[in-house]
Design goal:
Keywords: Membrane, Transmembrane, Transmembrane helix. It contains one helix and no strands. It has 35 residues and is mainly α.
């Protein structure tokens, strides 16, 4: 039971990490285009 919850938490963290990386890359590209 606890293992399942932990797995779900890890998957959610990985999803957040992927979103954060994507947003970061978009911000970098936007900065390059603006400047």
């Amino acid at each position: 039971m606890r293992n399942k919850v932990l797995k779900k938490k890890i998957e959610r963290q990985q999803l957040y990490l992927r979103i954060a990386v994507t947003v970061g890359m978009v911000l970098v590209v936007a900065n390059i285009l603006v400047h």
